[in-house]
Amino acid sequence: MEFNPVSKKQPDLETPEKTKEKEGLLVVRTANACIDDAKNQAVPLSLCGNFWFEGEVAILFADTNVGKSIFAVQSANNISDGNSEGMFGSKAPPQKVIYLDFELSDKQFERRYSVEWENHYLFNSNFLRVMINVSFTDFENFEKQLFEEIENILIREQAKVLIVDNITYLRMQSTESGKEALPLMKHLIQLKNKLSLSMMILAHTPKRSNPMNPLTVNDLAGSKQLANFADSIFCIGKSSQGEHLRYVKQVKARSCGVSDNVMVCELDKPYNFLGFTFKKEDKESNHLQTKSEAEEELKEMITALKNDNSELSLREIAKELDINHMKVKRLCEKYNL
């Protein structure tokens, strides 16, 4: 008699559709199925040159008074207007931009985009600027209400682009440590995924102890936790070649390659719009301070601190400048400060 081995019936693997219906944590597909699904999705368009694409979370960081808010407004203006010109243009159709401005007052904003308070720049009506209500007093529930209202504004305005200037104001505490940055970024990512947003988040750098070194992701406050959640990270540095020269550097990208060069720009206001004018691509090393320039800047900062408070100890000055106290001691002795 012929023996027919009984084969065990293999369990049916659920299709991705069934898995999604159950809203489980994980979805299993073949690599080819992933590509087939991606074919039906639109190709992400550039929102800011090669620095930010649709559907991405981008982080822009820089030191104080370098121009990150100016750059962000310029980017928002290009997106709202559908302006594709230049290195930082948007290839996407004109669309609404929600710009959370926790930095400038209305009058400060007016000054940047006018000629001495007259002949004002006319923004596209797609550019929606959001500020904190000065009458708001319920700071105990500040964070909860802030995120609820951000979500409501995005839904009401049917906007898909959000710019946050800057991340520090989204929490009552500092975001310089990863411990504080983690829940904040998770909340932002949840909002981004829920509403299919493209998001640019502005952040600052802690005091840099050595301006001779190139900018890296480590110069971003709360760097490790913030960087893990970002699709793109770029920064702005001050060029040593001129007071109004800046350079834009990409340090992380998922939609394109990271160039070895930086984009050198001039911060200028030819008429009624303060912005970045692209000049050339160059090596970052050509725009970093030399040892003597860095020492001179440090000497000026130590002198300023001593003039403000002559009782400051070397250790207190070192802590304020985030450098070694022996370095402060050597400079004080060298220049008789």
UniProtKB/TrEMBL annotation:
Residues 1-21 are annotated as: Disordered. Residues 288-315 form a coiled coil. Keywords: Coiled coil. Pfam families: AAA_25. Residues 9-21 have a biased composition (Basic and acidic residues). The keyword Coiled coil applies. InterPro entries: P-loop_NTPase. Gene3D superfamilies: P-loop containing nucleotide triphosphate hydrolases. It comes from the Bacteria. The keyword Coiled coil applies. This is AAA domain-containing protein. It comes from Arcicella aurantiaca.
